[in-house]
Amino acid sequence: MPASSITHLPITKVSRVVSTEALDALAIEEPLEIRLEHGTKENRQVQNISVTMRTPGHDAELALGFLFTEGIIQKQEDIAKIDHCFIACAENKENVIQVTLSEETIPNLRNTERNFYTTSSCGVCGKGSINAIRTVSAYDHQPQIDNFINAELLHQLPAILSRHQKVFADTGGLHASALFTSTGELLLVREDVGRHNALDKLIGAALNENWLPLNKHILLLSGRASFELVQKAAMAGITIIAAVGAPSSLAVQLAEEFNITLIGFLRNERFNIYTTAHRILITEHETTH
Questions:
Q1: Distance (Å, rounded) from C-alpha 64 to C-alpha 252?
Q2: Which of these, 119, 144, 171, 273, has the minimum number of CB atoms within 10 Å of its CB?
Q3: Is 138 exposed, middle or buried (0-12, 13-18, 19+ CB in 10 A)?
Q4: What are phi and psi of 179, to 5 degrees?
Q5: pLDDT at 136 (0 to 100)
């Protein structure tokens, strides 16, 4: 049975000086422990890799996307199976997921000392050093395929995303990541209480479909664009990122480094282009000083 993303709790609603009793819909937030089984047939081992606070649903995609964007695995074929820990776990079975690697796959575990405990608001908190959060994308040395989108089409994307944010519509409490084609076709939407989890779910789903690298797509973020989200997008080969909210200075710096077009404040028929502006096709230009 699919995990529920919503719970209902009794609350007291107050309007001016009048109170009423009601049921309110809340987004569920629960821990997910990601375990990795790897090694040769004679020397299999299970290692706890991460605990993240997430909204239940699409857990396998979340685990797959996390392992890929952290550089622990390189491709979908590295995975033999992904299952919730229904047999080996005595309790919290729905909140433990085990990723089993093929015997031929050697995971990159150099960064597992980074203390992968991630809250719903911060996915890089607790990592061992600044160098530990630098990105090495699997697609750095592939031929550059340029990607373009019309500015008028770009304005339409937030409204399209909003119509597909099902849990947010009920709770008002989730972030979303969406994947579009350059012609504005919506391919994927994933929601989560953590913005980094929503993107990991999206990238994990795309990895399952063998769509990577995503260099012909547009990533839309429902909130701000942090360094970590740009880092994950770079790992997936994404070349255009548009955020409804603001980018951080480090996000802009990383986007510049990886030749990513970064857009912020995409709302109300306006947006700012922070890096690599040539990919956005604009019909009229006006220079102001």
A1: 26
A2: 144
A3: middle
A4: -115, 125
A5: 61
Contacts of 10 (CB under 8 A, 6+ apart): 21, 22, 23, 24
Q: What are phi and psi of 246, to 5 degrees?
A: -90, 150
CA distance 172 to 166: 10
Q: Kindly list the catalytic residues.
A: 122
Average pLDDT score over residue span 104-125: 65
Q: What is the pLDDT of residues 24-47, one digit of tens each?
A: 999 999 999 999 999 998 999 999
Cα separation, 66 vs 159, in Å, equals 28
CA 235 to each of CA 23, 54, 78, 218: distance values in angstroms, whole numbers, following the listed order: 41, 21, 16, 14
User: Which spans in 136-261 are helix H?
Assistant: 151-163, 166-171, 195-208, 227-235, 249-257
Lowest mean pLDDT among 25-39, 124-138, 218-232: 124-138
pTM above 0.85, yes or no: yes
Q: Can you list the domains of the chain with their CATH numbers?
A: 30-121 (3.10.20.10), 149-281 (3.40.140.10)
Please say whether the beta carbons of 26 and 8 come within 8 A. Answer: yes
Annotated binding site: 265-270
What is the dihedral angle through the alpha carbons of 40, 43, 44, 45, rounded to the nearest 10 degrees?
-130
